[in-house]
Amino acid sequence: MAATEPQRENETLARAIPERIMTDGDADYIDEVFAPDFVEHNPAIGEIHGPEGFREYVFEPFRRGFSDLRVAVEDVVAEGDRVVLRVTISGTHDGPFMGIEPTGKPLTASGFALHRLAGGKVAERWVLFDALGVIEQTSTAPTA
Fold first, then answer.
1. Confidence at residue 42, expressed as pLDDT on a 0 to 100 scale
2. CA angle 119, 122, 128 (to 5 degrees)
3. Which of 4, 11, 104, 139 has minimal Cβ neighbours within 10 Å of its Cβ?
4. In a domain, 127, yes or no
5. Exposure class string for 98-129: b at 16+ Cβ within 10 A, else e
6. Stronger pLDDT, 3 or 130, i.e. the higher one
7. In the record, which residues are listed under signal peptide (predicted)?
8. pTM
9. Is residue 144 part of a domain?
10. Whole-angstrom Cα distance, residue 30 to residue 132?
């Protein structure tokens, strides 16, 4: 079944987060993508509110910690007002990240994000990613 025009628009908007915002570093586009009352549910970092919350707790830490950050979209499923993305995060830990000083180590992690769109913006997201893998790969402590 072919995607409808609203589904294609929703997919384009959801893909802008990993591609245009996270990979390209376009912080100004955050306000265009997220609704003012946006909520992200993320068990690794807690609940995030609004475009500023996304900028402060997701965008800035990752862009500061990994200057060559790349978030590649591997799969997309769009239906109605929902879009699911499966992504792969990669980069070099060359800046401070969540209290961890730069290690110069490469990072690769997988994740999923379910987006609910309303009024042409992302209203809500549920995010799961390999947070333990990120911590292990950015840590200087030996792993088991």
1. 94
2. 155
3. 104
4. yes
5. eeeebbeeebebebebbbbbeeebbbbbebeb
6. 130
7. none
8. 0.89
9. no
10. 26
CA–CA gap between residue 87 and residue 75 (Å, rounded): 7
Q: Where are the beta strands (DSSP E) in the chain?
A: 34-42, 46-49, 70-79, 82-92, 106-118, 121-129
Domain harbouring 97, CATH code: 3.10.450.50
pLDDT score at 131:
80
- Under the banding of pLDDT at 50, 70 and 90, the label for residue 1 is low
Gap between the Cα atoms of 124 and 126, Å rounded: 7
What is residue 82's predicted lDDT score, i.e. its pLDDT?
97
pLDDT digit string (tens) for 22-74? 999 999 999 999 999 999 999 988 999 999 999 999 999 999 999 999 999 99
In a domain, 143, yes or no: no
Residue 13, in any domain of the structure: yes
Q: Cβ neighbours of residue 60 under 8 Å, at least 6 residues apart?
A: none
Here the tokens at position 97 are 């990240």
**Encoded amino acid at 49, one letter:** H
Count of domains forming the chain: 1
Please, which residues bridge with residue 43 across strands? none
Residue 5's identity, in one-letter code, is E
